[in-house]
Write the structure tokens for this entry.
Amino acid sequence: MNARTFDPAHHLIEKEPYYEAVGDEIQLFEAAWRQQIPVLLKGPTGCGKTRFMEHMAWRLKRPLITVSCHDDLTASDLVGRYLVKGGETVWVDGPLTLAVRCGGICYLDEVVEARKDTMVVIHPLADDRRALPMEKLGQIIEAPPEFCLAISYNPGYQSVLKDLKQSTRQRFVALEFDYPSAELERRIVATESGVSEAVSGNLVRFAQLTRNLKGSGLEEGASTRLLVHAGKLIADGVSPVTACKAAVAQAVTDDADMLKAIQELSSSIF
Amino acid sequence: MAQSPLSAEHIEAQLHVWLDTEFTFYKVERVAAELARLERDHQDFILGWIRRIASTHITLAWQFGQRAPALLMRMERRLLEAWAVHTCDTFDRSGLQSALRVMEQADNFDENKRRNDATGVLFEEVSPVLGNFICGLSGRRLRLEEGDGAWTDGERLVLPPLIAALPGETDNFKLAKVMVTLLWAQTRFGTLRIDFAAIGARYEDPERALTRLLALETLRLTAHIAQELPGLHREMLRLRALLDPPLPPDWQAFATQLATPGTPLEASLSLLDDAYALDSCPSWSDQGVIRPDAIASARAARLEKEKARLRIKLAELLKEQPPDNLTTTQDTSDKPRIEATAQDENGKLDFEITLDGAPLAPPDDVKQLLMSIYLDFGEIPPEYLTPAGDGEYDPKQVFDQPEDPDAVWHGTYHEKGAELFPEWDHGRQHYRKNWCVMREKAVAPVYDRFVEDTLLKYQGVVKQLRLKFEALRDENRIEKRQTQGDEIDLDALIEALAEARDGREMSDRLFVHQHRTERNIAVAFLVDMSGSTKGWINEAEREALVLLCEALELLGDRYAIYGFSGTTRKRCELFRIKTFDDAYDADVKARIAGIRPQEYTRMGFALRHMTKLLNRVEAKTRVLVTLSDGRPDDYFDVYHGQYGIEDTRMALLEASRTGIHPFCITLDREARDYLPHMYGSARYVILDDVQQLPLKVTDIYRRITT
């Protein structure tokens, strides 16, 4: 079986990615896209930011180019660089340039992880100029109206080192994401993983217990994504307590006592 | 092959030494004879403990030796060990008499009654897990403590030291878990809101009323648990089936009435009259007891404080609101209207605050307060929601204040407001819990010309420092001939192309890489301020610190400077000279100038505290540099010789275990033989000449951080 390969600039998402709106974020995003304003998604890990982007790309019928930012991401990684091929230099577009050229959605995931100097290249794109200067080529590309820039970050990190600069954040329309309400989360987990409503209700309740632990030994409670993982395991025949251990407890902590405590919480519910 | 047992003579000789029989006149022959009959394994175990306890107190070791051989036959080793450690702890805390009493308790050890002890769970084993477990359950933050039974006052959950009702360890743990959950449920679902005094007054036999009320409440809370934690409820029923008689028939009706999920507290209260009339009363092994006095006193202390805290917090919250939000209220009434609604559903308790109908996002600490108040009243009383006026409360009375470290000595309770640290007792091979009473103090600043004079004196050195350290500053540089990079290295490319034409292999190192590293180091300096540093050493230490600060300011590393000294474990003092957040300003300079020799060298607590502080700082590399003049030593205490060395060694090991790099600079010229052992995990350097210290210290720092 061969994996399918896509050209990111022309690939459109075919099937509707499942997404349950928590508030009016879909409407807001569409309005921002029409008005050509870049978007900032805030929220804890695993609460549906990336899924939301996929859903919006599908809705707006634009290619989605995602860049996961890391602390070694340079401006060239985004814009592009010369490579040597057969004794000659060839210019290769970076993902950001690609997205600008094809009028797609460029999504910079976990943007605080990127080095601060890297972020400056997106500034001219993120204000009313909407242009990407490419110094090495000596060109400026003007973004078509369909182009959209979206970035995400998790304000839950308590580190002072990982914060967005004001000059960056004040260019964006911000959409705040949080874990969905219990009712909604139950529906999401049930739909995504295929477990019964009752099981997904218990999973959500379990997640709330772990979220109570945030700040007293846990950095972050169980995210919706982890619940979906646990749900899928359960749907595949794994016992709920084992599934919670593998998919949730082990994923959120390494601390032995905390692990045991989380297992005790899951065994109290199932 | 099992080792052959030790002979009575051999054991006797050892006991003579450990128990100092020449002076104590203990008759060790009988104990030795008894021990000689045991297997070697048992002998080693008991003798090991006699030796360890003897390092704490000889009488205790003697008492232990007399009892242990008989006890070992009926008691699990794990429990015997826990008992021995408990005895030593009691001795540390409250002296010989109390420790002897603990020792004697083992005599009442009843085999039949305690037949499950071997599989019992000790509080210290379950508390780390269950402590986190109850944090996960919603409601007020609760502490788990060890005590004389299972009860709660609404802020603490108390469990007995040993839970051993069942023959299996897993089941005993489950029982402990059910116990804390039931106690938690008391705080969460209203049991503690009952006015116990009024109930006591209403019935002829208050005790009878209380037991029946507890039984009714247990039934009601069980139903709540069944709803919230079905898995635990299943376990609960299984354990009850093993341990408790079935519910008396006349109680069945109550159970049915209270079994509906979400039954409020009033339902149990309304059934109390009927239950009081019944002669039978069920009690479950997991239900604990009710202590109305403890509940009332904790509640009384909490209520006013929390009311004041909430009102102050609300006032702060209002101040943060943009003014135009508030102007509308001026027309209707003079005060903004705050409302709080609790959402108590699906096991989740959440609060919403509205200001004149517009929702406000309450910060977490306000939510915690609302939660606690809600649990006390079942609602948020309106008078709690009027923001405090300016100066209405004295914040000193409402929020916990740090104690003035000097004022404590005028009081009687020396440990008040201090931080307690454990200390490693090498004889006992165990920590002495909460042994060192540590306080942070500020060094009294001296505004003189010390810093300027030092800079003048070492003018040449400072200039050199600048050069050396500026070179060290890891600046962005371009690395050529890399396999990957942002741009093409033209030189390399031309060369490679030429080589390719020549028929040779073309290099793939054709790129230029921008190297950017941020130095990400946090360093804490711990300076010996003991009396022995008086004179030259103190002077040299202060000069060294000035030069270090100069260098570190150049590098931009984050750093803190603390001094330590102590007189006995009750008075361990850590002197703040510069915290990580302080800037190197006139005050810090004055504090460096103000460093004066204090008392003795007790090092363990200082290392442990610095480890804690360092671990709070976000940095890739954490370094702890100790500057001291000799071996650890304290006044009129066990803290000298081997004991002090072993404790210091342990504290350094603890530090490196958390990922800190300890480094020691020592000026001790006499006995160097113990240094490699003491510094074990840490690297160290010995300076012969005190005068060298200011010159060498920056060099050393440069070496260890590059």
Q: What stands out?
A: The CA atoms of residues 624 and 662 of chain B lie 5 Å apart. The mean pLDDT of chain B is 79. Chain B has five domains: 8-115, 121-290, 293-398, 475-516, 519-704.
